[in-house]
Amino acid sequence: MRGRKTKVERVRHAYGYCRVSSREQANEGHSLEAQESRLRALAVVHGVELGKIFVDAGFSAKSLKRPAITELIGAIKAGTVSAVYVGKLDRLTRRLADLLAIVALCEKHGTALISASESIDTGSPAGKMMLQMLGVIAEFERGRIAERIADTAFDLRSKGRVYCRNAAFGYKRLGKHLVPDQQQQRALVVIRSMHSQGASLRQIAAALQAQGIPPKGKAWYGSSVRAILNSRMTAA
User: What integer is the mean pLDDT of 186-208?
Assistant: First the structure.
């Protein structure tokens, strides 16, 4: 009789992560030695022994393309990390999108993320709440950035200046300036007129197709008419 297979439990460790850019290396407060000492002291307070300190020396936080953080992320995915200690969240990354991705990864694999400076511990309900608030702030900031970009683009368009790689429907690029595209301007007149009279998007698309007005894509569709009507850049 064959014996039952016993499930092998993975050994999980608490690790630390330190990073310093070339510019920060001369700053004693940001030095790798100072960061590591702080992490080990905090771990002792928590009754935890750090198995390893992952170190990225001379790397910017603008990208996650760093050897130590890549190795640490791999260990988290492998399920061998119980907790990650950092001196400050910006040691991991300065990009909010990357930080939230790391937080989501840690949560998925049951890894606590502990920051000494921000007093965040995702292993606790309060720590999770703080990071959820961080996510709300990040979403708000993304919306503000998108709004500012749209405002800048609209201002440039109103001045007849190029504001992106592809000109908005109704215009074409001439050097650094935008000039009206006569055929597309004709299409805009038809779209606005028929829409104000209550025509459906499909009816407008069919009319444009019948009049032989060139579309921006392969053909006129209700969806392409909707995109033009909803675009702030093609507003009259």
Answer: 90
Question: Structural domains in the chain?
Answer: 13-128 (3.40.50.1390), 157-234 (no CATH)
Instruction: Report how far residue 12's alpha carbon sits from residue 48's, in angstroms, rounded to the nearest whole number.
Output: 12
Query: Which positions are catalytic?
Result: 21
**pTM reported for the whole predicted model:** 0.54
Write out the two tokens for 17: 């992560």
Alpha helices, H only, the chain: 32-45, 67-77, 89-92, 96-108, 125-158, 182-196, 201-210, 222-230
Residues 210, 203: Cα–Cα separation, whole Å: 10
Find the length of the chain: 236
3-state secondary structure of 133: helix
pLDDT surpasses 70 at 7: no
Q: How far apart are CA 134 and CA 126, in angstroms?
A: 12
In the three-class reduction of DSSP (H, G, I as helix; E, B as strand; rest coil), residue 105 is classed as: helix
Burial of 19 (0-12, 13-18, 19+ CB in 10 A): buried
